[in-house]
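Problem 12. The chain below contains 100 residues. Write out its predicted structure in token notation.
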Amino acid sequence: MDKDELLEDVRNYLDITFTDRETDEKLEGIMERGMAYLDRVAGIPLDYGKEDMPRQLLLDYCRYARNNVTELFGKNFEADLVTLRNGVQADDYARQQGYI
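Solution.
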């Protein structure tokens, strides 16, 4: 999935129905910061193109950032972030052991 498609999905999730370059630039920055944050939590680059936990967490991060409450994101989504990290670690272990 390319950046423009993801931007459209974020705009849709946030119910932004108007087109405005300044808003899009702000959302692109929010998306990039959110992806960097989630990749750091997971320990690997994540796939935000498929309907899965990384994508949902990114959309919610964008919602929090747009409302200027990113300091609450980690607290409110702590369980999901831990689950994300544990899933990545479990997959990594399974690959190392040759299970996948």
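Discussion. The two ends are 24 Å apart (CA to CA). Students who got a different answer should revisit the alignment rule from Section 12.3.
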